[in-house]
Design brief:
The protein is of the alpha+beta class and 638 residues long.
Length: 638
């Protein structure tokens, strides 16, 4: 530090003489000397006050105090200087001295050399948050020397315009100031800009591999770090995020590269951390480490734009190297909220009016509207129409609505409409919604256009085994008004059970409640004709309800990604409205499970989509899920 270079001539004589004891100047002793304003002489960039010192009779300096810099704002005062002996500097308010929020002491050998004090000289930085407007700086050196001034009365040319020079001179204060100023973004940004890389062996290291965000929604930072230190992300505006809750995992590349220097500290070096919502593309973000009192700059990077479409964001973010077992925890603590925001925004954009085409004469008042979404594949349509054509109830008293949910097949489906009518003689309505809406959105679009007294939600890969099933299912719903939703037994083509009702089971590996189909894959049990068995939920692959009632509940939730858990969500919503959910085991259809939605993705991505939807489902319905699980004797999570 070299503040005294402004005070000394090249010959070593003082340019601005320190204020000394009245006894040495021949003046009468005084207990104190007060100044309404600070000294204003001295070179620009020199001390705010002339040094205040106490000499003894021989002219040797016993104590002294210098005030080097002041930053003043209504919500923050930072002062730096030095003291020796019994000299003190305090900020005093109406009721007495104010304790500093930050105090940092450093050696001052430059002052010791200039004044030859008998004892050590300490440099200091004092920071005060929200001081009273009338607060005064009071300096004392011995019993007879005092200087006092209201902090707000210092001339502007004696104040620091910002914290930059103070932070450059007091590196040891950067860490404590970072801790003290986190609630004031502008000051925190200034402290972050002053951070510098560390040079000592074993100092913290870190790097941000990817930093991407969606404006107003948040984003992700993925990287690695080494060393025992608290890590933080700070952008240019002072938006701040601790990495204390970051997802961690082992990175073999980091272990191989740094194990020789960092040893076991290389374990779990990889991290993923959500970004603060205000931080968007184009912002500079810094990765900082609080290492003792030091604030170490590890890396800085400009934030890039993340995909805006929810499925696009999922394909990008789900590919990041977080183990699948940690995905639910990640959704809870990091970017689950980002995906929820993107899904909501996608629905807020609105949609073009649907295109509706009909072939054949649809009943004016259908008994049941069959709502069948189409995505990726539409070859199953002819299998269904072949069976529908042999069923008088469906052919003559129902309406069949195919909802195209894939722009890739909209043209061929619309082109095939007349041919299907001519081949099978079943009246058909085809609806194209203009965009991909997902399972829930496609069904809800069909629901909005349906005219039937009841609606049947049906997958395109569910094929009837014999006529009369839908008439029986419709009558069963009428005969059991306590039920708001009824499903059917679904069988694999081999004859084993695919669905006979759904329950909930906690998966300890992934830490989330999943839907389960008891008896799946086993031979079907004998069913008593005309019965309804109550279940916590039933699959949306074949589900009948009163159209007006289900529309009043809002239909399927469109908060899920692509397609999972919307059916159990609807079941729990119906239950919450006071109705029950059941399955008719004597009514059976064949289900080519997931064949109709296989184009949405497979493998690791599909599993992570399932985990996101399971997490969201759990967030919405945890209480009801756990109540059902307990009633079925399921083991509860610890």
């Amino acid at each position: 530090m070299s503040w005294l270079t402004n005070l000394l001539r090249p010959d070593g004589q003082a340019r601005l003489a320190p204020e000394t004891s009245p006894a040495l100047s021949g003046q009468a002793p005084a207990t104190a000397q007060a100044f309404d304003t600070p000294a204003s002489d001295g070179p620009l960039g020199g001390p705010v006050w002339l040094p205040l010192v106490e000499p003894d009779a021989a002219g040797r300096f016993l104590s002294g105090l210098g005030l080097d810099r002041i930053f003043y704002a209504p919500d923050l005062v930072v002062v730096t200087g030095w003291s020796a002996g019994a000299a003190t500097l305090a900020l005093e308010g109406p009721v007495g001295p104010i304790a500093p929020d930050v105090r940092v002491n450093v050696p001052r050998p430059d002052v010791s050399a200039a004044y030859a004090f008998a004892g050590p000289v300490h440099g200091f930085l004092l920071a005060f948050r929200d001081p009273p407007a009338s607060a005064c700086l009071v300096a004392r050196a011995g019993a007879e020397r005092m200087r006092r001034s209201e902090i707000a009365q210092f001339p502007a040319d004696r104040l620091e315009p910002d914290l930059g020079r103070i932070l450059a001179e007091y590196a040891a204060a950067r860490g404590p100031l970072f801790d003290a100023l986190r609630s004031t973004p502008a000051y925190l940004a200034a402290v972050a800009r002053a951070a510098a890389p560390a040079s000592r062996p074993g100092a913290p290291l870190g790097h941000m591999d990817i930093v991407k965000a969606v404006p107003g929604a948040g984003g992700l930072c993925i990287g690695w770090s080494l060393g025992q230190a608290d890590l933080h992300l700070v952008d240019e505006a002072g938006n701040w995020q601790s990495l204390a809750s970051a997802m961690r995992w082992n990175r073999g590349d980091i272990f191989d590269g740094f194990a020789g220097d960092y040893g076991a500290a290389c374990a779990d070096a990889g991290f993923l951390q959500a970004l603060p919502t205000p931080l968007g593309p184009g912002h500079m973000v810094r990765l900082l480490a609080r290492d003792g009192d030091d604030l170490v700059l590890l890396h800085e990077r400009v934030v890039e734009a993340a995909p805006l479409d929810p499925v696009g964001y999922a394909r990008w973010s789900f590919g990041l190297p977080v183990p699948a077992e940690q995905m639910v925890e990640r959704f809870s603590r990091h970017d689950g909220a980002v995906l929820r925001t993107l899904i909501t925004r996608a629905h807020e954009h609105g949609s073009p009016p649907p295109m509706v085409r009909r072939a054949g004469r649809v009943p004016a008042e259908p008994e049941v509207s069959l709502l069948i979404p189409l995505f990726g594949r539409y070859d199953f349509v002819e299998h269904q129409l072949l069976e529908f054509a042999d069923d008088p109830f469906i052919r003559d008293r129902c309406e069949i609505i195919y909802v195209v949910d894939d722009p890739g097949i909209s043209a061929p489906v619309l082109a095939a409409l007349d041919m299907w009518w001519q081949l099978y003689g079943v009246p058909i309505t085809v609806v194209w919604g203009g965009r991909n809406r997902g399972f829930s959105g496609a069904n809800n679009l069909g629901l909005s256009l349906a005219r039937g007294r009841q609606v049947l939600f049906l997958n395109s890969d569910v094929v009837p085994m014999a006529p009369g099933w839908l008439e029986a299912l419709s009558r069963r719903l009428d005969d059991h008004p306590e039920f708001g939703l009824l499903g059917t037994r679904l069988l694999f083509p081999s004859g084993g059970v695919q669905h006979d009702g759904m329950t909930f089971e906690f998966n300890g590996t992934y830490g989330v409640w999943l839907n389960q189909h008891p008896g799946k894959g086993l031979p079907a049990e004998d069913a008593i004709p005309g019965t309804v068995r109550e279940w916590p939920a039933a699959t949306g692959a074949c589900l009948i309800a009163d159209r007006a009632e289900i529309a009043a509940l809002g239909g399927f939730s469109e908060a899920y990604l692509i397609g999972d858990f919307e059916d159990s969500d609807l079941c729990l919503k119906v239950e919450a409205s006071g109705r029950r959910v059941g399955v008719c085991p004597d009514i059976a259809l064949t289900h080519l499970e997931r064949q109709s939605f296989g184009m949405h993705g497979t493998g690791e991505f599909r599993m992570r989509v399932m985990l996101f939807n399971a997490w969201l489902h759990q967030e919405r319905w945890r209480g009801a899920i756990e109540r059902h699980a307990a009633s079925w004797g399921e083991e509860m999570p610890a």
